[in-house]
Amino acid sequence: MEDNCSNKICGDKKKLIARANRVEGQIRGIKRMIEEDAYCDDVLNQISSAKAALDGIAKVILENHLRKCVVSGIKNNEENKVIDELIYTLGKMMK
Amino acid sequence: MEDNCSNKICGDKKKLIARANRVEGQIRGIKRMIEEDAYCDDVLNQISSAKAALDGIAKVILENHLRKCVVSGIKNNEENKVIDELIYTLGKMMK
Amino acid sequence: MEDNCSNKICGDKKKLIARANRVEGQIRGIKRMIEEDAYCDDVLNQISSAKAALDGIAKVILENHLRKCVVSGIKNNEENKVIDELIYTLGKMMK
Amino acid sequence: MEDNCSNKICGDKKKLIARANRVEGQIRGIKRMIEEDAYCDDVLNQISSAKAALDGIAKVILENHLRKCVVSGIKNNEENKVIDELIYTLGKMMK
């Protein structure tokens, strides 16, 4: 049985940080656009792109979380804790 | 009639930059969580919070954009351009 | 200038009703699946499809509404009313 | 261990059907609004309400599915099948 993954992030850490770095760059770009009076539509489209990039990161983490933590948690009879957390997390993701 | 707002961002620039700064801090927090092997659910919830904060910024810009640029553009008979852009922008926001 | 469209639906009425009929059929299909104890994932996927179909209808109506009612309303100096309504509507669509 | 729930819907069947009936009524209301040339904003808001009602039904089914089928499937060593399906379903729900 796999280890409970509560003490390591789910997913390829290096790639996830590289993706988060790109989002950070996008946010800085958005700040610069606001400062330099960019056209509203362009700022809004950049915000949509940053959100889509965050969704991409979340999707990777969620998929790994399901395959690792959730499976091992349930096999270790911690289903109540694991599923309660998952429902809370999915609720926030779907809002 | 109001000026066409294509050369100034729609909304209180100072407040918008302050909000974008907070999002930038959230993204750095997410990177740190990934580096330090935070629990997946906690990272996912932080990503949802950053997305909600970006939505808040977009909502302010969109509302001001509608009240200013869209109204003045249409009054200046640029409705085709203004509405085409708006439909594209809303399409990205709703995806 | 176009007429204010407050007394006719924005979009091809016949096509919109045909699409709404298909959604009604999807909802009846979902009810049947629930009654016949279909597998949860299949029911959830049908619900997602019905939501996507509703989004498709909403997109057509919104686009036509922007091109017709919103433009004519603003040209008739009713921008406050028209934009207030639009912001409320978009707020509900984006929730 | 609970039974694998693949042969019964997750959730209180009677209540779920009652909720689906209400959505069906909403869709018929939307068709009537389109036929009677209701104001676009009103139709769009009704569509948003129907989507929210479908989300409510999906949320109940998903929560029960996680607590029952997913848990029992994993305990029965069918994690690959169960998690693959779940990822597909969540992907459609989050689109």
What does this molecule look like?
4 copies of one chain form a homotetramer. With 95 residues, chain A is an all-alpha fold. Chain A has one domain (13-94): Methane Monooxygenase Hydroxylase, Chain G, domain 1. Helices cover 79% and strands 0% of the residues of chain A. Chain A has 3 helices and no strands. The first copy, chain A, has helices at residues 13-35, 40-75, 79-94. In chain A, α1 packs antiparallel against α2 (40-75). The longest helix of chain A has 36 residues, at 40-75. The first copy, chain A, is elongated. The two termini of chain A are 34 Å apart. The model of chain A has no long low-confidence stretch (mean pLDDT 92). Chains in contact: A-B, A-D, B-C, C-D.
Helix and strand content put the structural class of chain A at mainly alpha
Number of helices of chain A: 3
Largest sheet of chain A: none
CATH topology of chain A: Methane Monooxygenase Hydroxylase, Chain G, domain 1
Order of helices and strands of chain A: HHH
Net shape of chain A: elongated
Helix content bin of chain A: over 70%
Question: What's the number of extended β-strand segments of chain A?
Answer: 0
Beta-strand percentage of chain A? under 5%
In a nutshell, what does this entry contain?
4 copies of one chain form a homotetramer. Chain A is an all-alpha fold and 95 residues long.
